[in-house]
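User: I'm putting together a small comparison set for a docking exercise, and I want a reference complex before I start. The sequence is below, and the ligand is glutathione. Could you produce the 3D structure with the ligand included, as structure tokens?
Assistant: Of course. I'll restate your input first, then give the structure tokens for the complex.
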Amino acid sequence: MQELKLYYMDACPYCRKVLRYMEANDIDGVKLLDVDADPKNQDELMKFGGMDQVPMLLIDKKPLYESDDIIQWFEDSK
Ligand SMILES: N[C@@H](CCC(=O)N[C@@H](CS)C(=O)NCC(=O)O)C(=O)O
């Protein structure tokens, strides 16, 4: 089973789009990490992704940016 973590911010419309998609499609098993709520999450975003942009889905320590690509990845994983 893959380890999945979504780095996001509440105020980010692209993040909300991904979160809405996940809710509508009953996708669970993804750890949600708010980068504004905890500086540790922001540090991890930079450590694993290298780019200060959310949303970022970390798939077994591999970063995937771009909300549309993240949604497509979930679609392909169905
Ligand atoms: N095209 C990207 C846009 C993501 C984006 O612009 N995210 C903003 C927050 S809403 C961000 O992280 N901005 C910080 C930055 O670009 O440095 C997507 O669809 O995921």
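The chain has one domain: 18-76. Residues 18-76 form one domain.
User: Thanks, that's exactly what I needed.
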